[in-house]
Write a structure and sequence with these properties.
The structure is a single chain. This protein has one domain: Protein Transport Mog1p, Chain A. The chain is built from eight helices and ten strands. Strands 3, 4, 5, 6, 7, 8, 9 and 10 form an eight-stranded mixed sheet that branches. Strands 1-2 form a two-stranded antiparallel sheet. It is globular, with a radius of gyration of 19 Å.
Length: 296
């Protein structure tokens, strides 16, 4: 019962956090709207998380750092910071993959980080990325359970992005994490880039860490020139055109719009929050809200 309650609370808290990450005010669930006006007044909103702005030495990205946290590394749009209780926030990590069978702990060809099937669904890609990260660092591969997953819409052709909440077990300290994962189009050499932005914390404190993680993820910024470079194909095209390819300014802007304007994800999150409170009302809601398998 205690585990079930923790998962429900984390799911509900994380949906609110995701609404912050992608630029929308927190939603009011349908169940909350239906309560009579005589219901007790809601608790005062929590004070905003105080952040100290930090810019990477190479000017590739910036983000807010909470009090008591330390920046571990910052280069090439990737900022990693650690908290005082084993919590970690990893912003904009890039993973180069080559299309092929997944081999845990084995790097891919030509300096790529790994091999994995390009055709795999996004949740499977994220699971493989997390397991590969652990293996390359000499750690046990985590068992990943999705508590919530929803795709982002209106992306450039070939782009896949989604928001997620996961529980990781089979490691020294079981942890929960929330964030955004993107997989870009495959290039002519069968390489494809993947980007991971997330915050994780030991399961015992994860729910309390949600506001901090959400505030930091929302503060993360990448200059357009660096974002365009980040999206450039791993395999250089034979002839470059400023208006073609996944690194074109138009596609970069489409990506930015998708990350900042996802009302459909918020509406879906409200449905899942209700499901977390009162239980899923039907099979489809159960499936789409992560009770069975994520729609991702």
């Amino acid at each position: 019962m205690q585990i079930c309650d923790r998962m429900k609370f984390l799911r509900i808290a994380a949906v609110a956090a995701i609404s912050l990450i992608i630029g929308f005010p927190a939603f009011v669930s349908a169940a909350a709207q239906a309560k009579p006006s005589t219901a007790p007044a809601a608790a005062p909103a929590a004070a905003p998380v105080q952040l100290q702005n930090y810019t990477a030495p190479d000017q590739s990205a910036s983000a807010g750092v909470p009090a008591g946290w330390k920046v571990a590394s910052a280069t090439g749009t990737n900022i990693v910071m650690s908290g005082p209780q084993g919590d970690v926030i990893d912003l904009g990590e890039g993973i180069i993959a080559h299309d092929g069978p997944f081999q845990l702990g084995q790097k891919g060809p030509d300096g790529s980080n790994m091999s994995m099937p390009y055709s795999a669904k996004l949740t499977d890609k994220l699971t493989m990325v997390l397991q590969q990260r652990a293996a390359l660092n000499g750690n046990p591969a985590p068992q990943v359970k999705f508590l919530y997953a929803a795709p982002l819409q209106s992306l450039p052709a070939g782009f896949q992005c989604g928001v997620f909440v996961i529980a990781a077990s089979g490691v020294a300290t079981p942890a929960d994490a929330l964030g955004i994962f993107c997989s870009l189009p495959e290039d002519s050499g069968q390489f494809f880039k993947n980007f991971l932005t997330f915050g994780s914390a030991p399961a015992a404190i994860a729910a309390k860490d949600v506001p901090t993680v959400a505030a930091v993820l929302k503060s993360y910024k990448i200059p357009p020139a660096w974002l365009q470079k980040k999206f450039a194909p791993f395999t250089a095209p034979a002839s470059a055109s400023p208006n073609q390819g996944p690194s074109s300014p138009a596609e970069v802007q489409m990506y930015l719009n998708a990350m900042e304007n996802q009302q459909a994800v918020i509406d879906h999150g409200a449905t899942c929050a209700d499901a977390g409170i009162i239980g899923p009302s039907n099979f489809r809601t159960a499936a789409e809200c992560g009770y069975l398998s994520p729609n991702f």
